[in-house]
Amino acid sequence: MDKQQETINLTDFETLFKRHYAELCGFANKYLEDLEAAEEVVQAFFVKLWENKEKLQEIQSVRSYLFSSVKNACYNQLKHIKIREEYKAHNQREMDQEKNNVEDEFAASELEDKIRQSIDRLPEGRRKIFIMSRFEGLKYKEIAEKLNISIKTVENQMGSAIKHLKTDLADYILFLALAFFISG
Questions:
Q1: Contacts of 4 (CB under 8 A, 6+ apart)
Q2: Residue 62 vs residue 106, higher pLDDT
Q3: Which stretch of DSSP H or E encloses residue 10?
Q4: Fewer CB atoms inside 10 Å of the end CB: C or N, the chain?
C-alpha cells in the first residue's frame, strides 16, 4: 500500500506544481522584480515542499499556504540580496580606502624625496640651519647660539631656504604647507 500512496502523492504533487507554478512565479516576480530569481525561488520552494510532502495532507488551504510560503521565500531572498549588496559596498569602500592610502603613501614618499633633494641643493650653512630648525626643532635663538651667529642671520638663512624650497617645489606647495608650515 505504501507504493500506491507514494504514487498518489507524486501525482497530486505534479498536479499541484503544474496548476500553480506559473502563477507563483508571477507572484514572486512582483516582489523580486526578476523573473529568473522568481523562478528559482518557486522551484526551491517546490523542492522543499516535496521533501516534506507528508505535511501536505495537514494543510487546510493549500493555495494560501503556497502563496504565503513563496512570499516568505521572496522576503528571505530580498534580505539575502540586501546583505550581499551591503557586503559588496563595504568591500568596495575598503578597497577604495586602501587604494587611496597606497596612493597617499606613494605621493607622500615622492614628496619626501623631492623635499630631501631640494634641501640637499641648499648651500651647506643654510641647509644646516634649516635642518636644525625644521627637523631638530630648535628655536632660532638656540641655532644662533650653537653656530655662534646672530639671530638675524638665522632668520635670513631660513627665509632664503624657505624661498628656495617654495620655488623648487612649486608643484608640491600645498603638500609643503601641510607638511612643514602647519607643523612648524
A1: none
A2: 62
A3: helix 2-32
A4: N
Cβ pair 133, 140 in contact under 8 A:
yes
Q: How far apart are CA 184 and CA 165, in angstroms?
A: 15
CA distance linking residue 65 with residue 21, whole number of Å: 14
Residue 168 has pLDDT above 90, yes or no: no
CB neighbourhood size of 144 (10 A): 18
Q: Name the band, by pLDDT with cuts 50, 70 and 90, for residue 173.
A: low
Residue 41 identity (one-letter amino acid): V
The DSSP letter of residue 11 is H
- A 10 A CB-CB count for 38 gives 23
Helix segments in 33-136, DSSP class H: 35-51, 62-120, 124-134
Task: Give CATH 1.10.1740 domain extents, the chain.
Answer: 2-90
| pLDDT over 90 (residue 28) | yes
Cβ(131)–Cβ(119) under 8 Å?
yes
Encoded amino acid at 11, one letter: T
Q: Which CATH class is domain 2-90?
A: mainly alpha
CATH number of 121-181: 1.10.10
